[in-house]
Amino acid sequence: MATPEPPLTPLPPTNGTNGVNGLHSPDGPMETATIASTTTTAAAAFDSAIFRDYLFALLPPLIGAAPQDLESLFDDDFDERVSRFAAEGGGVMYVVKVRDEVEGELLDAPPSFLYKLSPQLTYTPSHVMTIALIKRTPTLDPITPLASQLHILNLFGGDETPYESLHAVVSNGVKPWFDAFVGARGGGKDGGDTKMGIPMTKKKFAELELSLLHLQQNVEIPETHLIIHPVIQKAVEQAHASNSRPSLSHIPPKLLTDSTFLNTLHSHVNAWIKSIQAVTKLSRDVSSGTASQEINFWLSLERALEGIEAQLRSEEVGMVMDCLRNAKRFHATVSFIADTGLKDATDVVHKYNQLMKEFPLNELLSATDLDRIQESLVLIFGHINRKLKLSPYPIRRALPLVEAISRDFNDQLLRVLTSHRLPFQPYDTFERLLTQTLTIFRTWEDLIKEFTNVAREVTRKRAEKFIPIKVVAAHAKLQERVRYLRDWRKQHEQLAVMTGPTKGLGGMEVGGMDMEEEVKEAYEVMKRIDVLDVSVEGTEIWVAAENAYNERVARVENQIIARLRDRLGTARNANEMFRVFSKFNALFVRPKIRGAIQEYQTQLIDSVKEDIKRLHDKFKTQYRFSEAYHMSQMRDLPPIAGAIIWARQIERQLLTYMKRVEDVLGKGWELYAEGQKLQSESAAFRKKLDTRPVYDAWLHDINRRDMGVNGRLFEIIRLRGGGFQLAVNFDPQIITLFKEVRNLLWLNFQVPHAITNMAKDAKRVYPHAVSLMETVRTYGQTLDLVENNKGIEWLVAEYRNEAQRMVSRGMNIRWDYFVNQYDTARYVSTADGRGDNRHIQFVREFASVVSVLQDKTNNVIDLYKDISRAVEDLATCPYTSEAFSELLGKIQAAIDRLNLEGYANLDHWVAELDKQIEGILLHRLSHIIQVWCTEFDRADDGDSRRDTVALRDITNKRRGDKRLKDEKALEGSMTLKPIVHEIRIQNQVIFLDPPIEHARHTWVRQLHDWLGIVCRLRRIQSSRYEIGLQMQGVAVAETSYTSLLTRFPDNTLERPFSLIENKVQQLKDYVGKWLQFQSLWDLEAEYVFNRLGDSLAHWQQLLTEIKKARSTFDTSETQKSFGVCVIDYEQVQSRVNAKYDSWQRDIMNRFGQKLGNAMKEMHAAILKARNDLEHHSIEGLVGSSRRY
C-alpha cells in the first residue's frame, strides 16, 4: 500500500545516532563487543520523535483527521510504547479511530472521534477505522526511512461488518499479488511450483476468500435475549449463593400475589413469544441469492434455535413460569411452547440440515481448475441425491437451490476459464481446456438427469403436490458459447494450418496477399474481446468481431478456392482427386469452399461405384473361401464371430466410401439422381451385410442341439479300420461355443443367459479339457512311437502301465465335478492352502505321467536308434577286435544310461539284444570260417581255383550282393602265409623239416586267432550299476562270446578242422612217397632179387612202377605247393635220383640177365618141342583126334 513518506528532520545528537553512525564509519577498527553494545543501545534508544513526525505526516490524509485531533495519540506512555515497538519484541502497532459517543449529543451535531495507539486490537461497535503498522524488520533503524521499514494496512469498521473489507483485501490485494509474484518467478515451471506447495497455497487463498464471502452473504439471524425481571434475577443469584436450587421461597411472598409484579412477568412472557416467533417464523426466498446463503441460513437458524432452547431451559425462565402457575395464570404458561412454534421449527430445521450439513459446496467455490470443478459437481449432486431421500427438504426449494448451484458453477467456470486467456492459448491447450469444459457440462447434464429422477421419486413417495421437475441452468448460454467457440477455433485452426508453410499454401503471395499473414491478422481481432462474455453487450461485441473476422477470411477462401479448382482441373484420375480432397479436406467444412467442388460429383461417384463393386466381389467370394477365414483360424477366431467381423469390416469399408463422398460433396449428396442411386445400392448392400441373421441362425442351431458339459471324462471310440482308441469325452463344439460367446459379447450381441451359462461352464473346464485332449493326443502318439519301435516296449512298460492306471482311474470321473467344484473353490479354501480339488489334481497328474512317458519314450528311442545302428554296424564293420569292441562299447554305454535312468525290464531287454548280437556275431563267425576255409583251400591248380570260386559264389548268394564288396575286402585282408616244409636227407635218412604236426598246429592256431576276435569280445551287461551282483563271488553269466562256437547249425566249425586234416593227410601222402625212397638205402639188392625170384612178370611190374615213381622226383621243379603249404625237395631230389638210377640200373641188369636166361630156356624148350613134333606122324595125331 503506497503511503506518503514524511519529511526527514535533523536528529539531535542525544538520540544515539552518533553511535549508530559510528558503526558505519570507516575510520579505525572497533572491537566486536563494542559494536554489539552500540547496536543494542541504538535500538533501545530509538527516538520517538522520528515516529511522531512520521505519524503526523501519514495519518491526516489516511484516516481523515486534523493534526490537532491526533494529539491524543501522544500521551505520557507514547515514548515507552514506541520503544517497545522499535525493539526486537514488538511486531505491530495499531492506530484506532473510534467514534466518541457523548450522551445528550444533538442529532445534527458533527460526530467527534477519538484516536488511540495500541499494541493490541479490540473491536467495539463504535469502531471506525484501524491502521496497522507492521514492521518488516526485527528492529527499526533510525537512519533508514520508516516508509521502507513499515507495512501499512487499513482495516475498516463502522456500520458494516469487517467481512467486506477483509474480503476486498484478500481478493484484490493479497491473492493477486501472490499470483503475480508466482507467475513472474515461476515462468510456467509447474513441477517446481508443485514441490514448493504453491498450488496448495493458492487453494488456501481461494478457500479464505470464499469463507469471507460466505460470512458477508450470511442472512443475519436476529439474536434473541429473553428479558428477566430483576426480582427473578436476584432470587436466582441468592439461590446460587446459598448453594440451593432456585424456588419460589427465594421470592418475597408479597410479590407472589402482587398483580403488578405478575402482570410484568406476564408481559415479559408475551415479549418472549414475539421475539421467539421472530426467529421461528423466519424464512428466505431460496431463488434469490446464492446457494451458500441458503445453506448458511439453515445452519445459522439451527444455532439460533438451539440458543433459544438453552435460554428457555435456564432457571430464570423456570422461576417465571412457576410464579405464573402459582398465581393461577395458566393461559400464559400452558400454551407458551405451542405459541412460540419452537418445537416444530426446531424439528423442521434439524431435518432440513440433514441436507445442509457437510454440504460440499465449498469444493466448487474454492476450485482452482477444471478437474476440481468436475469433481466438486459429482460430490455436490451425490450429496443432494443421497440426502434428499433422508431429509424432508421440499423439492420446490431444492429446484431453486440447484439453480443457485448452477449460478455458482457458471461463475466459477468463468473465473477459471478467464484466467487462462483462451484466445491467447495454443490450439492444443485451447482444445484440451474446452473439451474438458464440455465434458464438465455433460457431467452436469448427467447429474441433473439423476437428480431429476431422484426428485420425482421423492415427490411420489412424499405424496407432495405435483410440480414440474425442471432446472433452468444458469450456464446454458456459457455452454452454447463454449461449444460454438470450440467449433469456430477448430475451423480457424484448420484454415491456419492449411495456409501455413507446411501445406504449400502459406508463405506465397497470391494476388498480392499473404494468406498466412491475413489469417493471423483476422484472428487478432478476436483476441481483443472477451470471448466468454454472454451478456447482451458481450454478445453484440462477439458478433461484430466475428463479422470482421469473416470479412478478412473470405478473401483467403477465395484464393484457396482458386488454387483448389486449379489442382482438381489438372488431376488425371479420381485417385488424384481424392488425394487433393484429402489434403484440403479440413477446409471443406467451410460452405464457400465446399460449394466450389460440386462439379466433380459425377467423377467421384463413378470412382466410389468401382470401389463398392470390388466390395461386392469380395463379399460374393464368401467368407469360408477368403483369406480372412484362414487368418481367423490362425488367430483362433471361431467361424460365426469371424464371419460377423468379416462382414462388419466390409460394412465399415462401405461406410468409409460413403463418408468420403459426403466429405467431398457435402451433406445432402444423396438427394442428387446419381447420389440417390448410389445411396440405394449401398443401402441394399448393407442389408446383405446385416449379421443379425447369421447370429440368429447360430442361436437356433445352439438351442436345437443338446450341448452341455457332462458325462464321463474319457470315452473309447471304435476306429473304422478296426480297433479302439482312447479319447476325451468333450465335444469340440463346446469349445467353439464359449469362444463364439466371448467374441459375440465383444461384438455387443445379446447372448441368452442359458447359452452364456453353458459357455461359462465350458470356459471353466476348457483349460482342463484342452490339457486332457493334449495329454491323450500325446499318449496316443507315444503309443504309436512304441508300436513303431518294437524293441522298446519292454523298457517303457512301467511308465505305460502307470499311464493306463491313470486312465482307468479317470474313467470314473465326470465333467460335472469340475463345473460344480469351480464355484465352491472360489469361496472355500482347502486346509493345505491349495484351491485345487482331486479332479483338477488328476488332470495335472495325468498330464505329468504322460509327459514322463513321452520323455522316457523319446529318450529310449534315441538310445535304441543308436544301439540299433551299432548292432547293424556289427554285421558290416571290419573284422577286427578294435572295431567290434568300439561298437559293443557304444552299446554298453547306452545300456548303462538306460540302467541309470531306471528303465524297467532292462535285464530281459538286454538278454534279447544279446541274442540279436549273438546271431550277428555267429553269422560273422560263419562267414569268417568260410573265408578262412576258402583261403586255406586255395591252390594253384585249376581244380582248387574252381572250388574257391564256387565257394565264393555260394557265400555271396547267402549274404547278398550288397556285402560283396566288403567280403572281398575282408577276404583280401585274410592271407594265410604258406608254410614251407623241406624234405631233407641226412645220414642216409630222409625226413621232413619241420614235421607235419607243426603245420597242423600253425593252422589251428591261426583259425583260433580269427575266431577269437569275436569269441573274446566282452558281452553286454544290464547290471553294471547293480552293486549286489558285483558283491557275489560266483560269476552269474559268461562275459564273452566263446559259447557261440557251440551254436553253429551245421558242420561249419568242423569244416576248417576237416580241411586241416585233409591237408595234413595230403601232405602225409606226398611226403610218404618221398619217405618211400628211404628204402633205396635201406634195402639190400639181393633181398629184392630174392623177393622177385624168377618171375619175369614181377620183374616187369617192378620196372613199370619204378618208371612211374620216377615222376615224383624226376622233374625240373624243386618244390611241391599245396596252397597253404609248400614241400621243398630240392636237397633230396638229386640224391634220390642218383640212388634211383643206381637201383634202376641194377634191376635192369639183373632183369636183363633173367630175361636172357629165360629166353635161352624158352629157345631150348621150343627147339625141343620142335624136335618132338618133328618125330611124330600126322596120321596118328589125326586118328587120335577123331577118337577124342
Automatic annotation (TrEMBL):
GO terms for cellular component: axonemal dynein complex. GO terms for biological process: microtubule-based movement. One of its GO terms (molecular function) is dynein light intermediate chain binding. Residues 1-30 are annotated as: Disordered. Residues 14-23 have a biased composition (Low complexity). Residues 262-822 form the Dynein heavy chain tail domain. It holds the Pfam family DHC_N1. Residues 1-13 have a biased composition (Pro residues). Belongs to the dynein heavy chain family. This is Dynein heavy chain tail domain-containing protein. It comes from Jaapia argillacea MUCL 33604.
